[in-house]
TrEMBL record, chain A:
The gene is ZNF511. PROSITE patterns: ZINC_FINGER_C2H2_1. This is ZNF511 isoform 1. Residues 177-204 are annotated as: Disordered. Residues 82-105, 109-130, 146-169 form the C2H2-type domain. Signal peptide: none annotated.
Automatic annotation (TrEMBL), chain B:
GO terms for molecular function: nuclear import signal receptor activity. Gene3D superfamilies: Leucine-rich Repeat Variant (1.25.10.10). It comes from Pan troglodytes. InterPro entries: ARM-like (IPR011989), ARM-type_fold (IPR016024), Armadillo (IPR000225), Importin-a_IBB (IPR002652). Keywords: Transport. The lineage of its organism: Eukaryota, Metazoa, Chordata, Craniata, Vertebrata. This is TMCO6 isoform 9. It comes from the Eukaryota.
Length: 262, 499
């Protein structure tokens, strides 16, 4: 198929539309037995017209068996250790370190050191577990936000929220990143194997392994600080409440203060 | 900017003949599947393609005890390397359908795997995800559906940060999506559409390509036109999300355009558009101009690079443009077609030439666009004449009957616009070409030839004489008895004799 040489030049030149020649139709054009009518054609999804192109598309999908390790090979670097305090994991490839960092240190709660897969879940956790004002506000209005991306429903209790996620979003009842907060009894220390966040492939029920028995794989130390709930929460909360009473602040203003303090 | 796609494709050690044979088999299987409306393909990421093994060190099939043992080691082992190694062994075993069956029949196996997937040990997570990925690729529904307990976590991880991991999750989800409507009935309420919409903002090319793949699988679903695409289907709606705008962004030509990513999103767009749900919405987002510019870009690239697989991108782009041009909305912007740039015609012919040489089966799709461009546009018809494209068009006539009919249709589009157009069609190669097509046996080709002749005789009566001199009447006589052609043949004979 020979194209006129000027065509490539036309493509490279600027945009423009041809000045149309005058259109002048004779009614005899469409007179029987002739029936041609100029019209754009549309083809729906399953039309046979698409067969060849579709087959090629699927050959392409099936064809590509991709390497998990990138080509070229993952660049290796001299071994280095993770810089996060308390973590001595060692790496010799940046990709591995990136993944480790994001998994273990990326979205970590500064209060209880739990790691979350995303900022979204971390924010929800901090609000619901460590924000005392949240507890108070939630007695008056629905505060527990659905955890599914894109759903704006809110609920009175975390139980209600879980029911919603199970019924409407078909989430598992033991979804690992939505553990109900435990009671605030000062006596209960939080065991490291708690709530599944750190349990290593165990069943998702809260396991009550004593600290000593939890396996510490070589090269990786957990940050296993235990602080009783009273240390973490009650003192600053009590302080805050008395301050608020003195100031006569509204809850909304109080939230502002709390946020700025974080 | 159009560089050769960096080979993540691994050449196998098989001979060329063997490869060709396999490809022909697969092609035949795909055609059959499409005719039965069951065209399903999955993608597999693997770090050692079995053919590469060569010396036969393919992973062995694992028995029940071994699977249990590996799972236990991965879950409870003390050394991290040991745990990881156990999962790697499991993953290799899972390349076999038998091991997959064994795995899913073992009680608690998926639960354990999901536990490992959601552990805080990065490398264990990755290996567990790879095991899941192998399972998702299975052709057996029971195996793929056994992965369902993991989907909420796969979706959750899409808003994480580790690009390799996200890529793997996306390909796994893509494989599961295409498995069955049952799977999609779980994934949609779980929020797969918002999760994808959030993930599409990733800067990583590999993630975007994986996302495009997963999305194209979702859009290809049979129930997509009713339940997934329309804006009214609330939280699971594609058109109501920000996805369409992002998709179009991925298709804008420029330094950031990545061919692999563009291919996936072009197909996504095609599935949306040919569902004909809400195309004016897409036109409103600038789909026509984006795709038009992309077409120009493709034509430029085709002239420079050989064998870059550009037809994989050209095909969906042509389809999208062609279908969009049938929308009434196209005409309403200022009363004129949004797509008016003459360069589109030039680009299209460059692509037609490319198809002619490399992929003739795509010629009809290119000609389809040409028909839709010229049908109602005097401007584009004039362009074809002024750019001297009639002769190249005629050169396509011998390719096949389907192509012939389409070429003749385009020519009719031009001729029907009146004498000013027909004057430019004659004298020239048109009449000899028509006399040639009249000799075809295919009724549709001949019928279209008769329509064109009629228009030519009407608007350019001088052509009649030449037609007679070149034994036109004999050519017509051949078809006098054909039911579908008789009336027109007779009418033309009368015109010729009276002229």
């Amino acid at each position: 198929m020979q194209l006129p040489p000027a065509l490539c030049a036309r493509l490279a030149a600027g945009p423009g539309a041809a000045e149309p020649l005058p259109v002048e139709r004779d009614p005899a054009a469409g007179a029987a037995p002739f029936h041609f009518v100029a019209r754009p054609v549309r083809f729906p999804r399953e039309h046979q017209f698409f067969e060849d192109g579709d087959v090629q598309r699927h050959l392409y999908l099936q064809d590509v068996i991709m390497q998990v390790a990138d080509v070229p090979e993952k660049p290796r670097v001299p071994a280095f250790a993770c810089q996060v305090a308390g973590c001595c994991q060692v790496f010799d490839a940046l990709d591995d370190y990136e993944h480790h960092y994001h998994t273990l240190h990326g979205n970590v709660c500064s209060f209880c050191k739990r790691a979350f897969p995303s900022g979204h879940l971390l924010d929800a956790h901090i609000l619901e577990w460590h924000d005392s004002l949240f507890q108070i506000l939630s007695e008056r209005q629905d505060m527990y936000q659905c955890l599914v991306e894109g759903c704006t429903e809110k609920f009175k209790t975390s139980r209600d929220r879980k029911d919603h996620m199970v019924r409407m979003h078909l989430y598992p009842a033991d979804f690992r990143f939505d553990k109900p907060k435990k009671s605030r009894s000062p006596a209960s220390a939080e065991a490291p194997g708690d709530s599944g966040e750190r349990s290593e492939g165990e069943a998702m029920e809260i396991c009550s392994e004593p600290v000593a028995a939890s396996p510490a794989p070589a090269g990786e130390r957990r940050i296993c600080r235990h602080r009783s709930v009273s240390e973490l929460f009650l003192k600053p909360v009590l302080n805050m409440c008395s301050v608020l009473r003195i100031l006569g602040c509204t809850w909304a203003a109080a939230l502002l203060i709390l946020n700025s303090e974080r | 900017m159009w560089s050769r796609r960096q080979g993540r494709l691994r050449p196998t050690v098989c001979g060329v003949e063997e490869l060709r044979r396999r490809r022909r088999e697969r092609e035949a299987a795909l055609r059959k599947a499409r005719r039965e409306q069951q065209l399903v393909s999955k993608r597999l990421l693997r770090d050692d393609a079995p053919e590469e093994a060569g010396e036969g060190c393919v992973a062995a099939i694992l028995g029940e005890t071994e699977v249990q043992q590996f799972l236990r080691q991965a879950q409870q082992g003390t050394e991290e390397k040991e745990r990881e190694g156990a999962l790697v062994s499991l993953r290799r075993g899972l390349q076999h359908p038998e091991t997959q069956q064994t795995f899913i029949r073992l009680e608690g196996s998926m639960r354990t795997l999901v536990g490992l997937l959601t552990s805080n040990q990065a490398l264990l997570q990755l290996e567990a995800a790879r095991c899941l990925h192998e399972l998702s690729h299975s052709e057996q529904s029971t195996v793929a559906e056994a992965c369902l307990p993991a989907t909420s976590y796969l979706l959750t991880y899409l808003s994480g940060h580790s690009s390799d991991f996200i890529e793997l999750c996306l390909y796994t989800l893509g494989n599961l999506i295409v498995e069955s409507e049952a799977v999609r009935r779980q994934l949609l309420p779980q929020g797969i559409v918002p999760a994808l919409a959030a993930c599409i903002q990733s800067p990583h090319v590999a993630v975007l390509e994986a996302l495009g793949y997963a999305l194209s699988q979702l859009l290809q679903a049979e129930e997509a036109p009713e339940k997934i695409i329309p804006p009214a289907s609330a939280s699971s709606s594609i058109l109501a999300s920000t996805l369409p705008q992002h998709m179009l962004q991925m298709l804008q030509p420029g330094p950031k355009l990545n061919p692999g990513v563009a291919v996936e999103f072009a197909w996504c767009l095609h599935y949306i558009i040919c569902s004909q749900v809400s195309n004016p919405l897409l036109i409103g987002h600038g789909a026509l101009s984006t795709l038009g510019l992309l077409l120009l870009d493709l034509a430029g690239a085709v002239q420079k690079t050989e064998d870059a697989g550009l037809e994989l991108l050209a095909c969906p782009v042509l389809r999208c443009l062609s279908n969009l041009l049938t929308e009434a909305a196209v005409e309403t912007v200022g009363g004129q077609m949004q797509l008016r740039d003459e360069r589109v015609v030039a680009a299209l012919f460059i692509l037609l030439q490319f198809f002619f040489q490399k992929q003739p089966s795509l010629l009809p799709e290119g000609l389809w666009l040409l028909n839709n461009l010229t049908a109602n546009s005097p401007s584009f018809c004039t362009s074809l004449l002024s750019l001297d494209l009639i002769e190249p068009l005629l050169q396509l006539l011998p390719v096949s009957n389907v192509v012939s009919v389409m070429v003749l249709t385009v020519l009719c589009n031009i001729a029907e616009k009146g004498p000013a157009y027909c004057q430019r069609l004659w004298p020239g190669p048109l009449l000899p070409a028509l006399l040639h097509t009249l000799a075809f046996s295919d009724t549709e080709v001949v019928g279209q030839s008769l329509e064109l002749l009629h228009l030519l005789f009407l608007y350019q009566p001088e052509a009649v004489q030449v037609f007679l001199q070149q034994s036109g009447l004999q050519a017509l006589e051949r078809h006098q008895e054909e039911a579908q052609l008789q009336d027109r043949v007779y009418a033309l004979q009368q015109t010729a004799l009276q002229g």
